[in-house]
Amino acid sequence: MRTRRTAGVIVELLAIIATVLGxxxxxxxxxxxxxxxxxxxxxxxxxxxxxxxxxxxxxGLTMVSAFLGVNKGMKRVSEANSILSIALMxxxxxxxxxxxxxxxxxxxxxxxxxxxxxMSFWTEAQASAExxxxxxxxWNGPWTVFIWCWVIAFSPFVAGFIARxxxxxSIREFVLGVTIVPxxxxxxxxxxxxxxxVYYDDASKGAISADVAEDTSTGLFSMIQGVPVVGGILLIIATVLxxxxxxxxxxxxxxxxxxxxxxxxxxxxWFRVVLVASIGTVAVVLxxxxxxxxxxxxQTGTIIGAFPFTFVLLLMFMNLVRxxxxxxxxxxxxxxxxxxxxxxPEDDHVDKNGIPLDDDGQK
Length: 363
Fold this sequence. Notes:
Blueprint: H1 6-42, H2 48-68, H3 70-95, H4 98-120, H5 142-165, H6 171-203, H7 207-214, H8 219-224, H9 231-262, H10 269-290, H11 294-325, H12 329-339
Helix pairs in contact: 1-2, 1-5, 1-9, 1-10, 1-11, 2-3, 2-9, 2-10, 3-9, 4-6, 5-9, 5-11, 9-10, 10-11
């Protein structure tokens, strides 16, 4: 098989490394933010021991979800995510500064549309005229590069998982459902929660900004505490959301990762459980090694894992363009045969994983 040749194995290895470190990074940040959420309404102190307990609990929930499968495990958690996310947004919008949020949303959308192209090419060139004291002082410093690498680290398993559940869709439908619609939803989400944060930060004379400067994981909960009437309920919802969002991310990532590792065979539920435990172990290492600079350590882990895969993505882009330009009537027929497959005579000579059988029905 072409994918099992040396180049294919290297690509799969880079994808596995990027995925493991990307998921472990998210696991580390989830532990930090979930602990901050607990502290906001329970008074529990955020420390390394609590982080490890949180990782163990969230990892255990993910193991159960991965073992049960997509329809029984991940589907239920994803449905809970959707309900709680809508409840959080509606709660902040209705009980928070509604007029300010709607005004900010409208203005932000207009600003985004008008500045999208120039800001996409903005590098703050004037800052490069002289040496900077450190990378931290650069406009595209550690957080910007980290976000780029975090997205790249998530791309192998997210793309694989979405492609699997989008089988039979056209490219137009895929782009619309995977890129445009989710982006608009995220923009509304950020406009509501971010708009409320700006309002309450100004009203409190920079209290939220001060909390974020001290610990970035407390920003969401610091804002929610300012929402009247339902602030306490929203704190609980937001904390649960941090957990369930990551459980679904780790669950889908584990499915895709198991396909990378066991291809062309199908992975079993216990193998996915082992993968979850392995990713949790990497997250524990990142958190414990970091010490007082735990965030920097977690960021570095993602950058190390994602940087090599950047070159693979560039090759994939070029290959996609090449394949689309070489698409013809025969290719379209093959796509229809794959996406809307029916039982063929040759299917009797392979197992469920597509591996050929001998005349006696043995592998």
